[in-house]
Amino acid sequence: KKIAVFISGGGSNLQVLIDEIHQKYGEIVLVLSSNSNAHGLMRGKNNEIKSIVFDSKESDFDEKVIAILEENHVDFIVLAGYLKIISSKLVNKYPGKIINIHPSLIPSFCGANHYGLKVHEKAIEYGVKISGATVHFVDEGADTGPIIMQKTVSVDYEDTAETLQKKVLDIEHYILCVSVKKMCEDKLILKGRKVKVL
Ligand code: GRF
Question: Could you name the domain of life of the organism this protein comes from (predicted)?
């Protein structure tokens, strides 16, 4: 399977896909960043993966992105720390073929204005005892698509947003790798909102 990975920042999720999935279960053929100085771009380039910047504010953004995805025969897209909302045009072009990793147990602490450290600040502020990460299919909303996998972490009294972020990032890497491997093996069965992982 040919995979495109969309990033906006450090790309630690991209890196684990490069290390664990790339040229083993699938091939990452494209890294697309919404941010020209995302460190994740270097991760792609260091592994000879075509790495490009697309500013989603550009007028014909969707057409350009779809053209390059088709040009590279992309089978599915992974949003890994990508901070822009995917347009319905792109979602409908790749139905059931776009997955996202979010650093909380959806439907808690998610949506357009919950990203990065803010997610963990809200969890700490609320005083939850567990948090975690979610991999889900992308639909037209923000973090609202059918859930593929979730994994929890304990939130201790001493935890700060930063210590929680670190705990959650470690398990993001784990569940993203398992989910992408299952995508490569066509082992994710989507029925309505329910996902069966074979
Ligand atoms: C992290 O907050 C992660 O939880 C979310 O995007 C941010 C950056 O991830 N998925 P990465 O290190 O760029 O993969």
Answer: Bacteria
What ipTM did this prediction achieve? 0.91
Residues with CB under 6 Å of ligand 1 are 7, 9-14, 40, 80-81, 101, 103, 116, 169, 172
Site to substitute for ligand 1 among 6, 78, 100, 172, most atoms within 8 A of C-beta: 172
- What are the angstrom distances between the C-alpha of 106 and each of 120, 134, 144, 161? 13, 6, 8, 17
Task: Report d(CA 174, CA 179) in Å as an integer.
Answer: 9
173 belongs to the catalytic site: no
Q: What is the pTM of this model?
A: 0.96
Model pLDDT for residues 9-26, shown as the tens digit of each residue: 999 999 999 999 999 999
The ligand 1 atom at the shortest distance from the C-alpha of residue 102 is 10
Which pLDDT tens digit goes with each residue over 79-119?
999 998 899 999 999 999 999 999 999 999 999 889 999 99
Select from 77, 158, 78, 83 the least CA-distant residue to 119: 83
